[in-house]
């Protein structure tokens, strides 16, 4: 079983490139999410889909501050998009998701790009929120 976050991230990207090669851009985000989950589970990974992530601030507790598209092997958070262009806020949102979830590595994958490599952003969380 793969436990190294770099190997997990590489497997996620391999699945994304495989799916993009088969279907190209233009499908709904939810379809890409279905396909990614299917391919990752088929390869032996644990995939949490639309996983609620809590916000805890002093006495304030929110059970669902956001939902992560995919969390793979409890280690890599993956946000999927299907857009011609990504607004810079999507990157900032992923940074916030990583901080709240206390996950170190995140991938923003935009299947809407003609060349998938142009739609991938890798984010490393070096400043998790401490409880």
UniProtKB/TrEMBL annotation:
<dbReference type="InterPro" id="IPR026350">
    <property type="entry name" value="GxxExxY"/>
</dbReference>
<dbReference type="Pfam" id="PF13366">
    <property type="entry name" value="PDDEXK_3"/>
</dbReference>
<protein>
    <submittedName>
        <fullName>GxxExxY protein</fullName>
    </submittedName>
</protein>
